[in-house]
Design brief:
Layout lengths: L1 E2 L5 E2 L4 H15 L6 H10 L4 H13 L6 H18 L5 H14 L3 H14 L4 H12 L4 H10 L11 H14 L3 H14 L4 H13 L3 H11 L9 H15 L3 H12 L5 H5 L4 H16 L8 H8 L9 H13 L3 H17 L5 H19 L3 H11 L10 H18 L2 H13 L24
Antiparallel strand pairs: 1-2
Helix pairs in contact: 1-2, 2-3, 3-4, 3-5, 4-5, 5-6, 6-7, 7-8, 7-9, 8-9, 9-10, 9-11, 10-11, 11-12, 11-13, 12-13, 13-14, 13-16, 14-16, 16-18, 16-22, 17-18, 18-19, 18-20, 19-20, 20-21, 20-22, 21-22, 22-23
The structure holds fe (ii) ion.
Fe (ii) ion binds next to α11 and α13.
Length: 457
């Protein structure tokens, strides 16, 4: 029996396995790219290490790729076998991780989150459980629930607890998504002071700044920290995506294209070489290109590599928010037959799935995907017919307010094209409710409201 850095027991006789898993969890919490080799090392040192098997499965599940499902299943089977072999020797906390993986594998995301909450009720500084809960809840749009979790454990976190800064950055993002911007910025900045490589704290503050329209500050914030991201995983590319949001608001389209090519979708970048179709990277790329096109910017053949990767994901329903982007990508390259195949597959999944995600596809993803297709075809009334009734349900597809904004931009563009200024007021009110402090001052909404440039596609 060994302990992790916050004193939680790990059932293994191998010090090497325990140390490797502790490092893996540390790297996960720090968004470092070096993760799978450490988990592999833990399993090589002790193949019967149930917690390591569960962590392996949970990390693979987190990659939101249906191709990984067999490996997730194998990890679950190995974790269950280890739990049986350990009998009463495996701690309740470890068994809850196995249960969380089991629930996630069955598509019962809410049940998985409740396992993490149960862990945290006894072990409030188990930051791995907290971060997994946050991730799951983020991708089903339940950030108020996530904020409740991070608030519940707040008292247990003092500066002496290892990982204090990571707790602060986790809490900061919850606070940002429930629109408590002042507290979010305070905690995010503190986390980054403690550790400038903390990309999650950096990210929380970047979110606050885009929501509050602090574009120049946002660029300066990210520019001042960018040299600390060398060991980060894809979160650093998402931070470059965030920087592009600020440039977009300033009309600096060349800067956006430069960052897109150098970072966000630079296929020569080691992170994209290793994982070219990671879900968040596909989202980032599609979101930027469409935002640029909505500003009337030619993006050339940049959609093509996204489309080629998307063709392998038509039956992948692991990530509602990403699925909506698949439709955007396929439509952008004129692959309407493939987009219809995607929609058919999503409808089949939504009709049959009894887990957490099926209803979310039905309520949010399918209308958003259909709207993306209609928008590309210039069928603006159809866009309005789809998105006006579903817009207040789009949160169910998960993602942040800043990310989901893309679908409101599509709606605003169609309303503007149709000259429906009367309905644009409703969308502006939605954008305010989503937490943006100056909806009418934003690119894509101001002009849509007849106030500004009006050069959108
Ligand atoms: Fe973000």
């Amino acid at each position: 029996m060994h302990q992790d850095q916050r004193g939680h027991a790990m059932t293994t006789e191998s010090p090497a396995a325990a140390a490797a898993l502790d490092t893996a969890i540390y790297n996960f919490l720090h968004w470092k790219s070096a993760l799978m080799p450490e988990i592999k090392a833990a399993l090589e040192a002790d193949p019967g290490f149930g917690l390591a098997q569960a962590v392996n499965g949970l990390v693979l599940h987190a990659a939101r790729n249906v191709a990984y499902r067999p490996m997730v299943g194998e990890s679950l089977a190995a974790a269950r076998a280890a739990a049986r072999a350990a009998g009463a020797g495996m701690t309740a906390r470890e068994q809850l991780y196995v249960a969380a993986l089991d629930a996630a594998y069955r598509g019962e995301i809410a049940e998985s989150v409740s396992c993490y909450e149960t862990i945290l009720a006894t072990d409030p500084t188990d930051l791995f459980a907290q971060r997994l809960a946050q991730m799951e809840l983020f991708w089903i749009g339940e950030m108020a629930w996530s904020a409740d979790i991070s608030e519940r454990v707040e008292e247990a976190w003092t500066p002496e607890v290892p990982g204090y800064g990571d707790y602060l950055s986790c809490r900061a993002f919850d606070l940002e998504e429930i629109h408590d911007y002042a507290a979010a910025e305070r905690l995010g900045r503190r986390a980054v002071e403690l550790d400038p490589t903390d990309v999650w704290g950096t990210h929380a503050v970047a979110h606050v700044m885009i929501m509050q329209g602090r574009h120049e500050e946002g660029i300066a914030w990210l520019d001042g920290l960018k040299d600390n991201w060398a060991e980060a995983n894809q979160m650093c590319l998402h931070l470059w995506w965030h920087r592009c949001l600020f440039h977009l608001e300033r009309g600096e389209h060349d800067a956006v294209l430069e960052i897109h090519d150098a970072w966000v979708r630079n296929r020569e970048h080691p992170l994209l070489q290793a994982l070219p179709d990671l879900y968040i990277d596909l989202q980032n790329g599609a979101s930027l290109l469409l935002r640029l096109e909505l500003r009337g910017v030619e993006v050339g053949d940049r959609w093509d590599e996204l489309a080629e990767l998307t063709l392998g994901r038509l039956d992948d329903h692991t990530s509602p928010f990403t699925s909506a982007h698949y439709a955007i990508i396929l439509a952008a390259t004129g692959r309407f037959a493939e987009a219809e195949a995607l929609l058919g597959s999503m409808r089949g999944f939504a009709a049959g799935d009894e887990g957490t995600l099926g209803p979310r596809y039905r309520a949010a993803v399918i209308p958003a995907a259909e709207a993306a297709l209609a928008h590309r075809k210039g069928k603006h009334q159809r866009v309005v017919d789809l998105l006006l009734p579903s817009r207040r349900l789009l949160w169910q597809m998960g993602g942040s307010d800043a990310q989901r904004d893309l679908f409101f931009l599509i709606l605003a563009d169609s309303l503007k094209t149709l000259g429906r200024k009367d309905l644009l007021g409703i969308v502006l009110a939605d954008i305010a409710a989503a937490g943006f402090t100056d909806p009418a001052g934003r690119v894509g909404y101001g002009d849509a409201d007849g106030d500004a440039d009006g050069d959108a596609a």
